[in-house]
Amino acid sequence: MPFSSIDAVTQRLQAAGYYADRRLATAVFLALTLQRPLLLEGEPGVGKTELAKALSMALQRPLLRLQCYDGMEQREALYEWNYAAQLLHLRAAEAQGIAADVESEVYQPRYLIRRALLQALETPPPGAVLLIDEVDRADEPFEAFLLEYLGEYQVSIPELGTVRALSPPVTILTSNRTRELNDAVKRRCLYHWLDYPERERELAIVRAQAPQVGAVLSEQIARFIERLRSAPFASAFQRGPGIAESVEWARALAALDTIELDPEIVVDTAGILFKQRDDVAALTRELATELLQSPEQAAS
Amino acid sequence: MSGIVHQLGDARRGKLPGNMLGFGRALRRAGVRIDSTRIALAAEAATRVGIQSRFDLAAAMEAVMVSREQDRLVFRELFDAWFRDPELASKLLAQMLPSAEGKAEPPKRRPRVREALAALREDMQAARNEREVNFDAAMTASDRARLRHADFNALGAAEYRLVEKLARDIPLPLPAFPARRLRVAGDASARSRIHWPGVLREASRTGGEIFRLPRWSRREQPLPLLVLVDVSGSMERYVRLLLAFLHAATRRAGRRDVFAFGTHLTDLTPAFRLADTDAMLAAANTAIDDYAGGTRLGESLAELRCHHARRLIGRRTLVLVISDGLDTGDPAALDHELQWLHRHCRRLLWLNPLLRYEGYAPLARGAATLHRHADAMLAVHNLNALEHLAASLAALMQRQVTRNIHDGNARHPQA
Question: B255: which chain A residues are within 8 Å (Cβ-Cβ)?
Answer without folding.
Answer: 179
